[in-house]
Amino acid sequence: MRRLVLFMHVSLDGFVTDPNGGMGFIKVDEEIFDYVGDRTNLADMALYGRVTYEMMDAYWPTAPDKPNATKHEKEHGAWYNKVDKVVLSKTMKGQQRPNTIIISEDVEHRIKSLKQQAGSEILIFGSPSAAHSLMQYGLIDEFWLFVNPVLVGGGTPLFNNTQLPAELKLVKSKSFSNGVVCLGYEKA
């Protein structure tokens, strides 16, 4: 049985984008890439909303092949190319993509079915709209929040009014030298 794990950067005041929809406040570096990479390597499936999927799919399949590819690009690109991907999207309905499942309807039951299959973890990277849909049905088992030391004052909130009440238990925390703190929670 797979666990559904959300990886999300968030501002200290709880937003995943700034008021203009930007994410320039997010701090990432090799230390964070290595930390995330250790966890990513345990997962056998990735889940995205359409916008994040299109961004990822435009970059990661060829990133490891670049002559000046970084360690992170080589490792994450190799992982991206081997794992199955799930995309929550109404506009991509009926499209066929390699190693990719498009879910356009019946999200709750289709994701529950994927979680029941043999495997390790399904990771959600970013994708706030997809995360909101999954939270609405109580499908996320773990929240790995990378809290960036900035107040953006508005934008897309990580949590909105659609999720069910859930008590969480802190299972891991990690401070990074750039000021970001990762808080790992699972359902209590």
From TrEMBL:
SUPFAM superfamilies: Dihydrofolate reductase-like. It holds the Pfam family RibD_C. Residues 4-181 form the Bacterial bifunctional deaminase-reductase C-terminal domain. InterPro entries: DHFR-like_dom_sf (IPR024072), RibDG_C (IPR002734), Riboflavin_Biosynth_HTPR (IPR050765). This is Dihydrofolate reductase family protein.
